[in-house]
Please model this.
Amino acid sequence: MDDIELKQLVLNIKSGDRSAFGLLFEHFQESVFNFIAYKTGDRDLSEDILQETFLKVWRNREQLDESKSIKSFLFTMANNSAMNHFRHQKVVHSHQAGYRLDLEGRSPQDIVESKEFYEQVLGAIENLPEKTRITFMMSRFEDLSYKEIAERTDVSIKTVESHMGKALRLIREKINEINRQ
Amino acid sequence: MSDQKDRKIGQWHNPLLKTEERDEVRQELTDAEISEFSRIWESAAEYRPPKGLSVKDRLASLEEKIDEDLRVVPMYRSKSFKNAVAAFVAASVLFGLLYTLKPDNVLYDQQFLTEIGSRKEISLPDGSIVQLNASSELKFSSEGWKKQRNVSLIGEAFFDVKPSDVPFVVSTGLTNVTVLGTSFNVKNRNDHSLISCLSGKVSVDYDGAGRVVLTKGLATQVYEGKSPTNPYEIEIDQIDSWIDGKYYFRETPLNEVFEELERQFAIAIISDLDFTSQKFTGYFMDEDLQKSLSIICMSAGLNFNINGSNVEIYN
Model:
């Protein structure tokens, strides 16, 4: 969907068109869900927050602004909804997220040799500071460009570059530390 | 220090980086680093996001919630209750004003003020830097500076203090914040202070009623008549993000969020609703009023209407 189509979609949603809202949901639900999952590390909670985010948008559809990027708006809303769920406690990124290793086309030999390394990498990724983790997961798990990540997380490309470098540096340090022991 | 290097590492993996920049970045990295980073880069790319429910199930569940909405009748709010609340809010704002206007016991000859919707960077005699947020005031005495580094603050400021044996004290009327050399943020609006520490150590005193020591990534809040709250953790990069126009809130009463909007966008919020018991967690950016209002109002289930510099908020 290009910008003009999205704009028309937003206009239709503002006028109360539920099927237009359904299209918006279908278009963005996966990327928004992934973003929330990277943030919370909890698949079930992410489903709830996804629902809550879109429900809020529908309830207040009259306030949507078709001249602004609906994409950046949805991600900001999702981020704010997720923050709301954390309340006071510091959330530790857990292993309930269920990231999947996709090794199709790899030889069994190759997989056995690298399996341990893959696990070390994932463990290190999950321990990264939140914003660095979300940035790195978006880039690697979904193969998004720095520009796309910058748009979704509402930061500059320069900041994305810093997060990506920081992620690689910290993961490398962690893996070297494990393998020295 | 490592931020620069981090960015170079990040740039190295951006396929859209220009060749000449790439050559420059290459010089900063060792062969071992390049090969190890690449291995991590490739391995991480074998992972996929978690598999959630199907689009069909998600949409069905959302449709169901929307249908439920149609059956819910909005709750009626009594007008007299609203008026009582408005009077109470006005009284507490007035009290806050009177409180911050109480006379100082130090003679200040330097004064800096910021208008609504503007910010200022101030260099102090010792090289410390202050970022003064909108609608705030910073005062200090240039005479007495050598002996004591005392500043008085109304509003909000971020301090980057040059290390020295002479204590650096920020007085807000509500609290005294004392440091030797560190960076921290003080937000003092009405009768409520929020102090957050970005680096070093910060000591927060409240009229002898209590003292809290903050280290990196910790914050405390002080309400009129109460001792500072126990330190709690906050996101490091949210402490001074307002300098770049990004305002973060965590469980903050909605009226305080709207007050910040008024300061940043030079607008007046008009409403006969009570926002003191509703909390907001999230952020807004100071460059886009429409978007900021949409984000806050959507989270709170409110509506708004922009009319020049007046913004009406309603249910």
